[in-house]
Specification:
The protein has two domains: 237 residues, P-loop containing nucleotide triphosphate hydrolases (Rossmann fold); 63 residues, no CATH class. By secondary structure, the protein is α/β, with parallel strands linked by helices. About 6% of the residues have low confidence. It contains twelve helices and seven strands.
Length: 316
């Protein structure tokens, strides 16, 4: 599907991202062709060099004749909702390479480092035949956990300056990484941070057939990139052999089902609120403090006719 046609792919992703009426049919047709690529998520604090690392990894994968899709998530413009930064510019050397597709996406209100449309975009990139899809998150720090649901291999990128914060990150990024990278390793404190991460991982070891390695890189000099790609390959082989990759992909599909269902119900509910005077009256009572939100919501869900109206709104 869309093999090598970047312009068509760009149009389809735009339609899906904007939730065009054609989006369901586009995704239905793409679904059977997706799932063949390996998704690598790059996450970590702002300024850790994720974009440069993604650029270098892309170059090495292309040197090995692998096709690559890159979806780089940037802060959204407060005016257009689009991406403020442009990875087409930051990855200029790959722009005219037909074996690479690059897409910048705005967060569009996403709070976990990724926009809600990311899964749909990745599916389309996979369906176009790309063997690897690199997903770079926006860099929002410790809350950036959505990448765990979007990627087969999660690479957490840190810098030496993050050394004092490793302990506070255990409940966030430290728990989702399959590979840890200390980038800008020529700076003071890099080795200390790497040792600290290894200690932290040892103390909070997860039940898994895979032990997350801690690598050091200098992405701007392409140092350590080959070792990173080797670690990704080893993680892929290990997770395939253990069945963990298949489990992760099944969980991803279920997660996307529930997220899509939730979004559609949420949209239908707002349509009902806007058009149903009875519902608007209840909202006014909640706003005026005449009834608490929990009681009002519980009573409305007991109104079977109202629920039927919501379900009817989903069909429109």
């Amino acid at each position: 599907m869309l093999q090598g046609d970047s312009l068509s792919l760009a149009r389809l992703i735009t339609l899906v991202e904007r939730e065009s009426p054609d989006a369901p049919e586009i995704l239905r047709l793409a679904g059977p062709h997706a799932g063949g690529g390996h998704r690598i998520g790059f996450t970590g604090p702002p300024g850790s060099g994720k974009s440069t690392l993604v650029d270098q990894v892309t170059g090495r994968l292309r040197a090995a004749q692998a096709t690559v899709g890159v979806i780089a998530v940037d802060p959204s413009s407060p005016f257009s909702g689009g991406a403020l930064l442009g990875d087409r510019i930051r990855m200029e050397r790959h722009y005219r390479d037909s074996g690479v597709y690059i897409r910048s996406m705005g967060t569009r209100g996403g709070h976990g480092g990724l926009p809600s449309a990311i899964e749909r975009a990745v599916m389309l990139v996979e369906a176009s035949g790309k063997e690897y899809v690199l997903v770079e998150t926006v860099g929002v720090g410790q809350t950036e956990l959505d990448v765990m649901d979007a990627a087969d291999t999660v690479v957490v990128v840190l810098v030496p300056e993050a050394g004092d914060t490793v302990q506070t990150m255990k409940a966030g990024l430290m728990e989702i990484g399959d590979i840890f990278v200390v980038n800008k390793a020529d700076r003071d404190g890099a080795d200390k941070l790497a040792r600290g991460i290894e200690t932290s991982l040892h103390l909070s070891a997860r039940e898994s057939s895979w032990t997350a390695p801690v690598l050091t890189t200098q992405a701007n000099e392409d140092v350590g990139t080959e070792e990173l790609i080797d670690a990704v390959s080893r993680h892929r082989e290990a997770s395939e052999a253990s069945g963990e990759l298949a489990d992760r992909r099944r969980r991803r599909m279920a997660t996307q089902f529930f997220k899509t269902l939730e979004a559609k119900v949420h949209a239908a509910l707002h349509d009902v609120i806007a058009s149903d005077g009875e519902v608007r009256t209840v909202v006014d009572r909640v706003e005026n403090g005449e009834v608490d939100p929990y009681t009002a919501a519980t009573e409305m869900l007991r109104d079977r006719e109202l629920v039927r109206n919501w379900l009817s709104a989903l069909d429109s």
